[in-house]
Amino acid sequence: MLKVSQLYIYPIKSLAGISVKAAEVTAKGFTNDRRFMLVDKNNRFLTIREFPKMTRLQPELKEDGITVMALDTEVDNLFIPFKTSKEEKEKVVIWNAQVEARGISSSIDKWFSTVLGADMKLVYMPEKSMRPVDTTSGYNPSGKFVSFADAYPFMMMGEASIDDLNERYKGDQKFTVHRFRPNIVFSGGIPNQEDKIENFVINGVSFKGLENCARCTIPNVDPQTGIVDANTEPLATLSKYRLQNRKINFGRNLVHLGHGTVHIGDILELE
Asked: What is the mean pLDDT of residues 170-192?
């Protein structure tokens, strides 16, 4: 039996995630998942790929906004209110998409620019801004939408897959799911069982696995330090048994149908 064992949301794209006991499913994914994003002076998205230290910025959800703590920098915590985004609409670029967004404030932009050491600003995706799922791999399912996540509203993986990776790895450390930034983690089953999971239901919400998650270099960044692994681990180990069509696949990208709430302990009802 497969059960939801961990749930994560990432309020600001590429910053540290938040473990939650339950998450509400909306049209774009979980509530508060990747609704904020940092962009450069050309309004192009910024991620851990360019700024590994983003993993050392820890958000915390409050009733009226988000507090961000810089774990490695002696600065005051930043508060980002939910209701004070600027009225002016602007277009931001994420991969092959131009998305409607709004800025927040110059003081918030300055905080991130100071902490991460480059000129940048924070933008927010309004509820009416609908970004269709249209991936670089060619998947563009009709009527499916995503927030500022790379491509899909959800990414799922099994604990057995992480355990298998750690058994194969020859080093001393143990890798956790935090390297891979999933939304849904399940217990039970066999390693990489998620590869072939297509249609399933969690607490009345239907999900569909569309394709496996092709990994970039982000998993090589240790989220506990913000440092890139000198030996390109864990991708080096994954490449020995997870290389498929010149891509290192690990995890499963999902779309969904319907609304509801997913809880830790919920059963994955496979169809």
From this structure: 96
